[in-house]
Amino acid sequence: MILLTAFKDTSSERLIKGLQGYDKLILENHKEKSVEQLIDRLNKNTYSLILSFGQRPVIKDKIHFESTAKDKSGVKYVTDFDIDAALTACGEIGLFAKRSDNAGTSYCNNIYYWGLDYIKSHSLNTKMCFVHVPYDKNIGEFDNFSKKIKQMINKIGE
Length: 158
Fold this sequence. Notes:
The protein is of the alpha/beta class.
């Protein structure tokens, strides 16, 4: 089973709301509450893959797969999700994507860090990746972009 997460009132929420066939979790825009929401969901369900979506202001009509999350002291988690395979899948469907090693310093990085920490500390057989998407204003054709996101999720979830 695949879990899609997105932060409330963002382009990422708008993107995943329209996608059918996945378990979805809309996260509060609050560092502690969003982590509590994710952990609560992980305590109730088993997932093979978690794709957490958030918005990044400087990108346009493309996505970034984040490889690394880190806490304030510099402790890092690197995802074991196959970003190279995801990039190949995106190329096949015409979705511009790249690898990024900077999940940011706020909500996106925080949910990613604590999600990876929970997966590791509880020895879950779950892959997780954080995916940055553009703000609404930086998505040229929203319906087409959304369709490509669904195709990407289907390809990497196989």
